[in-house]
Amino acid sequence: MSSSSSSSSSPSAPPVPVPPALSPRPATAPGPRGVDWRVRFGVLALIWGFSFLFIKVGTDGFAPFQVTFGRLLFGTAVLAVAMVAKRDRLPRGARTWGHLAVAAFLLNALPFSLFAYAELTIPSTLAGICNATTPLWGMLLSLVALFEDRPTRVRAAGLGIGFIGVLTVLGAWQGFSGLDVTGTAMALLASLSYAVGWIYVRRTLSGTGSSNLSLACTQVALATVQLAFVTPLFTTWPQRFEVLPLLSVVALGALGTGCAMLLQYGVVAEVGPTTASMVTYFIPVIATAAGVAVLGETLTWNTPVGAVIVLAGAALTQTRGPRRAPRPKPVPDRTPPVREHTPPVRRPVPVTAAASVPAPAPAPLAASIPAPATTPAVAIQAAASASVPCAPGGPAPNRPGPVVQ
């Protein structure tokens, strides 16, 4: 499920960032197979809601690590078939594979195993409700790790309300209502692991260039390899395979991890990660109904009341504060500046230069007129204003003579 978005992870599908090129289609448009997204959204909620029932039944015949390993193995098989059908490629780069290995541990191997061990001592209804605390943990951790998620009063209130709901579910005022503290702590720790993994994926695997399906398949496959090394160290091979637990493990992996992730991939691509993340709030309701109706688990008043409080708080933590309108940027003045026309400054002709020009021979008429007594400067001006010989070829009409300032 997508990090470029704020959505909650589920127990069956780790969040995987959605490529930026994958833009959501209109919500009213049907999917590629003609099935409306609301139908696939409901199927996705049912599959993940029943996952806790499958875990509970699977642990009746197998060890918790064996349940987790089988779940990851069948889930990887479904995703691998989907990759072959779509001719998709595995991610490239050792750095990407290293980040996927860490994400596989935080989002698959560790929480899947913790939920399996938790349901040895707690009912599946309580495990489903504990899974709903993932948005609370995510909001709390994002305030520290993701600086862009600034706290608001509404989100802070949602965080407080959500943890009050957790205490209500556990019956803290009456000694946790006889619930197993270790099993409950494991379920809450699994939800915390989802939140940590979400933040890690958002910070390390966004913008890798690989498809969502490719990242998800590789992540689940790496988690399968991790459990393949761990399971033989802590478990022994079962002496017999009971049919119902085996079918539960197959359904948990093929449906809850494989097909559910494909459904999630399609819903996110069609309506966006924000709408797709709303499936998280249906999971505890379906898990509680399945545990009571199918497994006959008892339900006290504080469990559903606390679940409603948890979901209300989780919903508040996913709200965003009002966006501030961006300040209008000043429009640059593109008018070209008006340049004033400055006439060129003419340099005065040096007196020595003008005096060095030989004066033409005076005309006979000018010679007969006696020159008045003048100063040398006036004499120079009179000499310069006299007629100048024209260029060869005739006189040039309207050709100005030299100007002496």
Write a brief caption for the model.
Helix content is 58%, strand content 0%.
Question: What is the H-and-E element order?
Answer: HHHHHHHHHHHHHHH
Binned strand content: under 5%
End-to-end CA span:
88 Å
Number of E-state strands: 0
**Structural class designation:** mainly alpha
**Residue-averaged pLDDT, rounded?**
77
Q: Tell me which oligomeric state these chains represent.
A: single chain
Poorly predicted residue ranges: 1-32, 365-405
Helix content: 55-70%
* Apparent shape: globular
Number of helices: 15
Rg measurement, Å: 43 Å
- Main beta sheet, described? none
Description:
The protein has 405 residues and is an all-alpha fold. The chain has helices spanning 37-58, 64-86, 94-118, 124-131, 134-145, 153-170, 181-204, 212-234, 243-271, 273-276, 283-293, 302-317, 351-356, 364-368, 376-384. The longest helix is centred in the middle third of the chain and has 29 residues, at 243-271. Mean pLDDT is 77; it is low at 1-32 and 365-405.
Task: Name the descriptors.
405 residues, mainly alpha, 58% helix, disordered N terminus, disordered C terminus
Topology (elements, then pairings):
Layout: H1 37-58, H2 64-86, H3 94-118, H4 124-131, H5 134-145, H6 153-170, H7 181-204, H8 212-234, H9 243-271, H10 273-276, H11 283-293, H12 302-317, H13 351-356, H14 364-368, H15 376-384
Helix pairs in contact: 1-4, 1-9, 1-11, 2-3, 2-8, 2-9, 3-7, 3-8, 4-7, 4-11, 5-7, 5-12, 6-12
